[in-house]
Amino acid sequence: MWNSSSMVQFLLLALADRRELQLLHFWLFLAISLAALLANGLILSAVACDHHLHTPMGFFLLNLSLTDLGSICTTVPKAMHNSLWDTTTISYTGCAAQLFFFLFFMSAEYCLLTTMCYDRYVAICKPLHYGTLLGSRACAHMAAAAWATGFLNSLLHTANTFSLPLCQGNALDQFFCEIPHILKLSCSHSGYLREIGLLMVSSCLVFGCFIFIVFSYVQIFRAVLRIPSQQGRHKAFSTCLPHLAVLSLFVSTVLLSHLKPPSISFPSLDLALSVLYSVVPPALNPLIYSLRSQEVKDAIRKTMTGCFSGAIMCQVSDV
Fold this sequence. Notes:
This protein is mainly α. It is built from 11 helices and 2 strands; from the N terminus they run βααβααααααααα. Its main location: membrane.
């Protein structure tokens, strides 16, 4: 029988059995992580350097890129390490840290997406009050609340999960540490019920944010449809599409992975869905914003041009 106090490591789910496929997964994860790092790095640089993006939406976009970088750096490096060295182990403390930071960044991202929805609502439905309702102080408070909510939610779940006695072995059916798979190893009925209670509280928070998002977009669409000119409606819709696309990608992948019927659950599908919601969104989010927002595209173009010009000037000066 295993005990959480004496357990030193967990066994993660292998991405593949054959060595060739393991190396293929390594290179695939490496490409995705480099793309995510580059794209989110460009977003951060563009928002920081271009004064046109010194707006509430630019500020929230900067915070969103930070959560994307954090979430992909939490899960992918360990998966790459295991694929490259043909191992599946993760230490007990490493698993706890991975679970904490993954929950932290995912929770903060959802709260930030809810806040960004409020930004779009005020910009379209209450444009005359935009500067008042979304001043620099208000934006800082909302971002701080999103990060604090993610931290508290992650701390409670991680502390409770890793306080449970584990007696069902140490093999997790997931390529990174996640609460449902750790709970399967628990032999504490009361601890399991306590975690279910925490999950219900978190679900109420998630559902409350979802209702707020739906209500906000109903009001946004009603306001946009009242705009007399087609060009005005198109411009208003275009400001909402990047946020709506990122939000839909985030929510749909999480729901698809965790709420699918047990009858269609099998290892390869579960693994594909977990990769879909934990790895793909951080790489696609900056691409969505850069493709749909002309201001972001212009800022990224100026940032890249400045970097290339600086590199050329350095080479010329060295010569």
